[in-house]
Please model this.
Amino acid sequence: MKLGFYPGCSLEGASREYNESVMAIAEKIGIELVSIPDWNCCGATAAHNLNKELSLSLPARNLALAEEAGLTELVVPCAACYSRFTMVQHELMHDEPLHKRVNEIIGKEYKGNLRILNVIQFIDEYVIDKLDENVKFEFNKKVACYYGCLLVRPNKVLKFDRTEDPQTMDIVMKKLGADAIDWAYKTECCGAGFSVSFTEAVARLSGNIVEDAVHRGAEAIIVACPMCHSNLDMRRKEIDKFNGKKSDIPVIYITQAIGVALGIDHKKLGLQRHFVPVNLKDFKPFVKKEIDVEKPQNMEVE
Model:
């Protein structure tokens, strides 16, 4: 099976371990991810603050290129890229004059026929059903699944999972044998792109997230966003200073967690690249057990 793939700038740079782990689990389950030919930056996070037409044209060009390549579904792991792609698709499909103008700017005809999936949608539709037969190690940890601001918002456009209490990553982690905790900061902001320009704000916002996860007994924070990972992992020194104590809770991409459970080598998953070390020594051989992974009722909010 082939699916389109948009790595974006982060996955080819600071968050290459995310790219590595997405590719590793896709290969493990027999899915080929095909990158958009000649893709460009989607403009996140600054373009939409500077120029309206630019902010629409950058993602639209990528989407048009994907359509030209014959792709019908596009996996976009970065939450910011996913948000830009989905919002641009929605806006252009509901504004014909604007749609025509953007097509003129990019010199291509974007038709709007592409289905866009974030990484947890990809896992939910193509990966989770294959875990029972492929899991080799139990992810025997209490985990805090952190979704951040963008993966399920705005719900009226994305129409995926619950806005304030999403469940998809929790379900996946339970499938791997983890104990996904209930906690207060599941969708709170980590500080996003202020990591360099306003590091103190990131330390405070991300510090609250780390503090609550640790307070509730979590042994790992599971994420699906490069910016969230960077703020919670790379900025740990600033977080610890804000919280007034040292914390060693690792921040792990959901794709890395799946890869660990599938028995993929940790270097192939990029786990050695983290600032906060990830200790894999105490993972246990997987013992099949009854785990309730039913989606709760009213999971989608209208």
